[in-house]
Design goal:
By secondary structure, the protein is of the alpha+beta class. Helix content is 29%, strand content 35%. It has helices at residues 2-24, 37-59, 72-78, 141-172, 178-204, 404-413; strands at 26-27, 33-34, 67-71, 81-84, 86-89, 93-102, 107-110, 116-120, 128-129, 134-139, 220-224, 229-234, 241-242, 249-252, 257-264, 276-281, 288-295, 304-311, 323-329, 334-339, 344-346, 349-361, 364-380, 383-387, 398-402. The strands form 6 sheets. Strands 3, 5, 20, 21, 22, 23 and 24 form a 7-stranded antiparallel beta sheet that branches. Strand 17 (288-295) and strand 18 form a beta hairpin. One of its GO terms (molecular function) is transmembrane transporter activity.
């Protein structure tokens, strides 16, 4: 009885399992499970798609870091247009900093040649002086000694000269011996040299031997201004002893002033003599004019060089030592230039894109563009001056003149353009 119950239960379980299996799958005429036509088609399509994708991924080439590619649809959407590098006249301005100074011959430092004590002076910084004007009176007993020596030597020389002339006549008449004549000549020449030397010393301290007499011997001398101008500094006080190394006065003539400008070496090829300079001082709106007259021939340690310009018109408020902001007008000349839209910037560097080649991938056309780093110059009237790498073929290379930033974005979005 138990065996009969167990058999009936087992048959019921098999029937339920068979019924469930038949609901999930269809069977063919042989009783095997079969998929529907739609299910089979979907699976077959997925297999083929996966196979094609695998082939495309396997065949897609790895692009160099300086290459970006677009297909025809992307090129049309970005509005890519091609052009060439050309020559154009592009003018601009170079900014520079500098100082106002004077030409060397319009600046004078005044000191006393032999030293002495200051007896008098009534000049102050800013005082206007003219050439030949007395700046101060200095006295020293050494001046008296120098003047006395001058007259002693002068008197001896006059006597020696008369003797020399007399003995010359006697020697011609064979009355005077040759030896005596040689001694007289030697003494005459020695005194003549001494007289010339002491005359030069007197002229240095401002005494003219031509108009100097014994009655004019004095312990005081006048310090004379060598140029006209204004007193910049006056290092002087009554009774002070001054030596030849002490500068008593600094005098500056502002009739002819110049600018001393510092420029970077990259601008060396853009500066020539005769270019116009506009400058301002103390952040004022009014601009003054100057013209370059000399360009430095060497680069300093800080990679700058000097440019000198003469100020064109009198400027009462411009004084030596003032700091100036200047810009130098570039001369119009033929330079390598491209449309400004062709130049893109990234990470403080500038680039252009050039056509590299056309190709096909998986039966689809693609175009490759190469980006090249350049040096950017001035921009004027929609064109920008550029400096290209060496050996760049200007005649046969096509560049992207529109849509360059779309190419840059594509390159950056691809994750291939680093900040290095």
């Amino acid at each position: 009885m138990k065996t009969l119950k167990y058999s009936i239960f087992l048959l019921l379980m098999i029937s339920v399992a068979a019924s469930t299996g038949c609901k999930g799958k269809k069977t063919d005429e042989h009783g095997h499970a079969a998929e529907t036509h739609a299910e089979a088609g979907e699976k077959e399509g997925e297999k083929e798609h996966a196979h094609v994708e695998g082939e495309e991924e396997g065949e897609h080439e790895e692009l160099p870091e300086d290459i970006v590619e677009l297909n025809a649809e992307q090129i049309a959407y970005a509005g890519i247009q091609m052009g060439t590098v050309g020559l154009r006249q592009v003018s601009g301005a170079i900014k520079a900093n500098g100082l106002v100074s004077t030409v060397p011959q319009n600046t004078a430092s005044v000191s006393v040649p032999l030293g002495g004590f200051v007896k008098s002076s009534n000049l102050l910084p800013g005082s206007v002086v003219r050439k030949g004007q007395t700046l101060a009176i200095v006295e020293n007993t050494e001046f008296v000694d120098l003047q006395q020596n001058y007259f002693e030597i002068k008197n001896k020389f006059e006597f020696a000269e008369a003797e020399y002339n007399r003995h010359q006549e006697l020697y011609k008449e064979d009355v005077y011996s040759q030896k005596s004549m040689q001694q007289n000549t030697s003494e005459y020449k020695n005194l003549k040299a001494q007289l010339k030397g002491i005359e030069q010393k007197l002229m240095v301290i401002g005494i003219s031997p031509a108009t100097f007499t014994e009655d004019k011997i004095s312990a005081s001398i006048s310090i004379i201004s060598p140029i006209s101008g204004s007193v910049k500094t006056a290092n002087i006080s009554i009774g002070r002893y001054v030596s030849p190394a002490d500068v008593l006065f600094e005098i500056v003539n502002t009739d002819k002033m110049l600018l001393e400008l510092s420029l970077f070496e990259k601008d060396a090829n853009s500066i020539t003599v005769g270019q116009e300079v506009h400058f301002s001082i103390n952040n004022e709106n009014h601009e003054h004019k100057a013209v370059i007259y000399q360009v430095g021939k060497s680069i300093n340690a800080d990679k700058t060089y000097k440019v000198y310009a003469t100020i064109q018109q009198p400027c009462p408020n411009v004084m030596p030592g003032m700091y100036v902001l200047a810009h130098i007008e570039k001369t119009d000349k033929q330079v390598t230039a491209v449309p400004s839209d062709a130049v893109v910037s990234f990470d403080n560097k500038y680039y252009i894109f050039v056509f590299e080649k056309e190709k096909e991938e998986a039966g689809k056309p693609f175009t490759e563009y190469r980006f090249i780093e350049i040096t950017k110059g001035d921009t004027n009237d929609g064109y920008t001056e550029i400096m290209l790498p060496v050996n760049f073929d200007k005649e046969n290379t096509r560049i992207v003149v529109k849509g360059a930033y779309d190419l840059l974005s594509a390159k950056k979005n691809a994750g291939e353009m680093s900040c290095g």
